[in-house]
């Protein structure tokens, strides 16, 4: 459900579960984590491109999965946390193409990307608080750095939807373009064609010390895990499942 290919030095990672809006399951997180972990030591991979399908980048974490592991497993050992750690430690340039919905982790992972292309129909939203949860993926640190506290609050705490245009103004998106995937692919190939070591060192300088980011990922995950069993969270998830079953 993550399809992968390597073309012209670009590893294309496609979230490939279109009937469920590419909602991310444990298996999909594991596949993405493995891709990022192996790319760090693979000279063939000079850039990575993350994309979905027209209309769906991703609907976020699979809500059924949330319900199944809430309170039963140690959060630190879940595929999602492995994925978030791999994202924070990823050393290869990462480009995203957002077409349609980018919800929850679909929003927060964009904060780890070096270049983000969004189609005009992009719907960027992170309804963590509405679900009784807290922001994850280091977004509580990266969000205010990228867009300032006020806009980060609006996106991450208030759960307001950012259009492609608004995300562009906020600095989360580089370009709004009808064919986001084609533009992202072209950019990824441009990155891949540059001297790889100079690119690696330059990106590392821009990112600075990532220990704070890794620490924040763990801190958020611990709070997130404790929230999964909170009555308001269970009620919100069950409401989503009920809506589905109707
Ligand atoms: N987890 C599980 N299933 C999901 C999902 C998710 N995060 N996102 C979408 N889906 C499923 C829907 O349940 C539906 O399945 P069904 O056909 O078996 O009923 C299918 O994908 C299509 O979604 P649908 O809601 O019909 O499409 P839409 O275009 O009307 O809305 C979304 C798309 C993404 C806005 C909506 O599905 C949604 O709000 N999903 C939940 C997002 C969320 O809260 N994610 C977690 C954030 S922490």
Ligands:
coenzyme A
Widest sheet: strand ordering: 1-2-3-5-7-10
Strand content: 15-25%
Terminus-to-terminus distance: 26 Å
User: Regions with pLDDT < 50 over 5+ consecutive residues?
Assistant: none
Instruction: Figure out the total of helices.
Output: 10
CATH topology: 2-enoyl-CoA Hydratase, Chain A, domain 1
Briefly, what CATH class? Alpha Beta
Q: Helix fraction?
A: 40-55%
What's the story with the biggest beta sheet? Answer: 6 strands, mixed
Overall CATH architecture: Alpha-Beta Complex
User: What is the 3D form?
Assistant: globular
Would you tell me the structural class of the helices and strands?
alpha/beta
Order of helices and strands: EEHEEHHEEHEEHEHEHHHH
Count of separate structural domains: 1
Can you tag this structure with a few keywords?
246 residues, alpha/beta, 2-enoyl-CoA Hydratase, Chain A, domain 1, six-stranded mixed sheet, four-stranded mixed sheet, 16% strand, globular, binds coenzyme A
Description:
The protein is of the alpha/beta class and 246 residues long. The protein has one domain: 2-enoyl-CoA Hydratase, Chain A, domain 1, CATH 3.90.226. Helices cover 48% and strands 16% of the residues. The chain has ten helices and ten strands. It has helices spanning 26-39, 63-69, 79-89, 105-108, 139-156, 164-170, 180-192, 196-207, 211-227, 231-245; strands spanning 2-7, 10-15, 47-51, 56-58, 94-98, 101-103, 115-118, 123-125, 162-163, 175-176. Strand 2, helix 1 (26-39) and strand 3 form a beta-alpha-beta unit. Helix 2 packs across helix 10 and helix 3 (79-89) packs antiparallel against helix 9 (211-227). The longest helix has 18 residues, at 139-156. The protein is globular, with a radius of gyration of 17 Å. The model has no long low-confidence stretch (mean pLDDT 95). Residues 20-21, 23, 59-64, 101, 103-104, 127-128, 131, 244 line the site of coenzyme A (COA).
